[in-house]
Amino acid sequence: MALYLIGDVQGCDKALQRLLAEVGFSPSRDRFIVLGDLVNRGPQSLAVLRRLMRLEGAAETLLGNHDLHLLAVAAGVRPPHRSDTLETILAAPDRGALLQWLAHRPLALRERGWLLVHAGVLPAWNAAQTLALAAEVEAVLRSPQRDAWLHRMYGNEPAAWDDRLQGEARLRVIVNALTRLRYCTPDGVMEFDTKDGRDGAPPGHVPWFDAPGRRSAGTPIAFGHWSTLGPLQRADLLALDSGCVWGGQLSAARLPDGVEAADARAVEVVRIPCPQAQRPGR
Fold it and tell me: Which residue ranges traverse the bilayer (predicted)?
């Protein structure tokens, strides 16, 4: 059974369909996992959600920041952004089922020895702790307290992890790391304003995966979220957001069959070109 990891789709359903055809995906024998940001900015967010729901069992997804934004807009927590393309979902007759399905997606997964996240992992977390902390947020999103939590989810503080954190502050750090992180200080203080590539780190900051002493080092990690990073494929790291919605590419990585983890440099990555769906700028 082939297992594919797919980067940010962001409402580009036609590109997703072409990518699945390109790799010869068959739902009867294969699986794929989208690494978050299923919706928004692209033109077919509703079609993406319906496709993934229909393929459940053969398809899994992580929650990204745009997916959480959809849940927040639907709950009345925030107004839509001018650049959002969520209207068809919010007006759909199956809106309730779609949102309920989305709220039950995980924030992190472990597959064949790989740790899968949308954005990043804080230096203080190992793979097991990352999964456990993700589960704390998942439990709230799947509970009757979801809307109340979404009202308190936004904010950049606390900016660093502390095992003593509790309540909404604890959950906010977890969400921000797993769905928004690009840069942090060497000791794990997050920075959210900079969206440039790896060479654009603000003073005193490094890409999260270059933090010295990172406890998840050695665990292969695949992530999306950072389209300006460009291709990155090193022994324990695989970046798969190749900017489809910005006119870049949509990427799929096939994990080796029957192997628990592997050198990411040997992983086969297939990329297809995407039409320009949004003007440059995020």
Answer: none
